[in-house]
Amino acid sequence: MVACGTPARTRAKSRLKAGCRQDWLPHIDCPTGAAHIDEAAIIEAKQVEKVYGQPGESRIQVIAPTDLAVYPGEILALLGPSGSGKSTLLRILTGLSKPSAGEVLWHGKPLAGTCPNVSIVFQSFALFPWLTVLDNVQAPLRAIGTPPHERMKRSLRTIDSVGLDGFETAFPKELSGGMKQRVGFARALVVEPEVLFMDEPFSALDVLTAENLRAELLELWEGKKMPTRAVFIVTHNIEEAVSLADRVVVLGKNPGRIRTDFRVAIPRPRDRKNPHFLEIVDYIYRVLTQPDAPPAPEPGQPAAASERAAKQAYPMLPHARPGGVAGLVELLLDRNGRDDIYHLADELAFEIDDLLPIVESASLLGYITVKEGDAELTPEGRAFAEADILHRKELFRKSAAERIPLIRQIVRSLESKSDHSMPDEFFRDMLEEHFSEEETGRQLETAVNWGRYAELFDRDAASGRFYISEEGHNH
Amino acid sequence: MTLPVLSRSAIREQSWSALVDLLVFSIVLAAIFGVLAVGRYWLGAVTPAAQISHSPSALPKYAFYSLVRMTVAYFLSLGFAVGYGYIAAYTPRVEAVMIAALDILQSIPVLSFLPGVMLAMAALFPSRQLGLELGSIVLIFTGQVWNMAFSFYSSLKSIPRELREAADIYRFDRWQRFLELELPYATIGLVWNSIVSVASGWFFLMACEMFVLRNHDFRLPGLGSYLQTAASNDDTGAIVWGLAAMIAVITLIDQIVWRPLIAWSDRFKFEQVESSNKVTSPILHLLLSSRAFHWVSAHAVQPAWNRLTAHAAGLTPRPPKPPRAPSARAAAWMVPAAGVALLLLAAYALFQAALALKGVTLAELLSTMTAAGATFVRVIVALLIASLWTIPAGVAIGFNRKLARIAQPLAQIAASVPATALFPVVLLLLVRIGGGLSVGAVVLMLLGTQWYILFNVIAGAMAIPTELREAASVFRFNRRQRWTTVILPGIFPYLVTGLVTASGGAWNASIVAEYVHFRKETLSTLGLGAQITAASEAGNFSVLLLSTIVMAVLVVCINRLVWRPMYRLAETRYRLEA
Predict the structure, then answer these.
(1) What ipTM is given for this predicted complex?
(2) Would you call A139 and B310 a contact, using CB atoms and an 8 Å cutoff?
(3) Total H helices, total E strands in chain A
């Protein structure tokens, strides 16, 4: 575990510094050198950790011991691929979920129950469909016992401020997605929270509506029309993070841990074509596409602990379809075998959650190499891209069976049985030692998908057994 | 001049409202009188076997008494269901036990509760009619509470996580969470289950109002006892009058209570987009536009509600104090103590039950087993016959919108007539044709349960996407292929739901179907239901206990071994993704 000699406060700072790469990126500042060196954190998580599973059984670490603090006056964006525990971390910071180890401090005092003065804007809006807009906004005030007159005044004022004037008596189901999320904002702001938490607030909205709401949020924040001291936004959209945040924290997955934490010092309004903006976006892509490379920890720092935990983890099968991998490889072939991943995502209008598993799969299969945010085709990848359908399957079969541990393991187990079949509980049990139940299901689903494409094995849904089909076994 | 601008529709709206106001006031007056009448009757001296009049002029009074019983039993059920569901959902330690208990209690037929309930109530109020009445009410209650409790429990369990988190982060206390999140979320399920429960209450009304216990006649004035007396005296005129009254009451309740309730509960639908088809209720519309209603709402309901929530908000100190050690310690001590007490009680009951069962002779055991077999066969035959006609009919109705518009309301009216009320008529016919009660019991099960299958099949057929049916036409599927690849798999989940409900209903119906007082004599046939009824009348406690246990075990086993796997299949393989 982590060396316990250093006091927690300094360790927290050094962790942040460790993730920072000031040397080659001039517009990224370390938070330690920035404004809040003398300002106390509002919420501070110390070595929080989340583990699923009963004591004694196999335990799955979802979040490795992590330090994270929210300071007054900042918009903090928490960015990461799916499975990195962003939402779990948000729930730990707000007190909705208890960490398995470590503690959360609210103004320096340990937290009991939920945070006394925070709000959350939810991805799915989480409005009460049976209450009108006005009643939805009033509900939190009623909970804290605000007198009716005052309650009404404050609710109406907040509803006005988010541009919902005239919709007070409407029910949520009568509103469009963007309007619903405005109600979500109004409900969050009406209690004048010290920290406003947002859990992917724009990802259920279409692109234009999301852009519009982001701009209005910034306007409220910049114009100090928002009674909040800090904003904490969880997102998987890199550009959203860079355009909104004063500080970006990037999480890695398996288990979730902080990969990098830096300040964005571009003045607002931020132009997406600005070279500094692009530089930062590119940097985040580079961090995200190299999941195993630690972002240069300083010597002698305890930062390596979480990285070590990551190394021990069972290699995870990325949730991509073989067809997606083939598509990426073909696209790269058209681009002379090399392209910037950020460009690819931009052109395909993919978010990182969609693109990263494909990139990861292609690189696991040995079709591409990822360097400095660029993807480059390998000779195998070139051969795969140029092959016809049948030949392609053969190539895929070979590389999947050789290079992907889970596929290899399934094939070997099936081959060792005389009837070439196994119940899926066997693989389920095996995987559940490393993953949560949900993730185990997804891993097996992806494995079946790959196995079928490669014609290595199949699964019979009715009996719940994996088997090598006669045809498949002849290869 | 501005006067003519006052539009005609507005005037009509106004005059309607005044009429409704008048109606509301007269209803309030009638209610006050009713409460007084019921109070006088309940607190009066006991008349265990009231003389049941044959005259149609007595019907309004009887209908009123039955209605009061049903209403009280229903609200009792509602309260119990909410409490039970709430405790089960939020107490992980007892959750599994409570849900299993619900499963078993649901499979115990109404009459098996009869001796215990009646004796307890008579002991509580020995000199008042109240005791008997309460007994009857509790009997009706045992027939309708379980599915409501289960519905409330599963609604609580399925509240979306983010809504719960919203309630937590905005610091709703238990009371506000209940009123603004849990109760609204559960409303739709509760309303639909209430309708099913009350329908089953009507089904067993005859059994609950008139019964024999230890060779003692118990008769409570009401519609059920009126019908039963008419049937056993072979008074066809009275049967027709009674039936008409019952159908009238049920139709009225459907229009005055359930339809407005369904229309009103639409606002609690958990959907983000407004759906196109809605149930409408002219009565709800009238009520909402009534001035009296608004006045009461503005001057009584709203202030009371505000005071209630404000009071609740004031109850919990804010911010809540973390050290709650004393109460926590008390709770920590109370829970195991309550558990131990409950276990002791259960052990004592088991011991007593074992003692009672020791008196069962081998012959009785054998006859119980054969009886169980006979009823089992009857249930299967009833389900088969029901499926044979409802599946083709339901699919035809579901596929044809025009036909559906005509057939659905008709079927709803047909379904709302309690089968037990029709039973005497059916028996008369059967006796004339020459069929015995053994066949008659199957007919009654069929009458009572086929509707569940029909309605579910209609819903299932409507849910099959048009594209699938079009594909079947384009590829020239023949009739057989159409049924096996499109229709049957498509309606499968709905069919399973219908069959489960129908199977439970059929088992319960055996109680009233296999043992009948008819034309001043007692008809009975071999069956578990007949055995339970006979044992309850004779006060043969050991046989009653044995046959109840056999029935509960059978029903629970069938649920676990047949229906649950089919449900799983329906949820995985035959699910039509929207």
Answers:
(1) 0.70
(2) no
(3) 18, 17
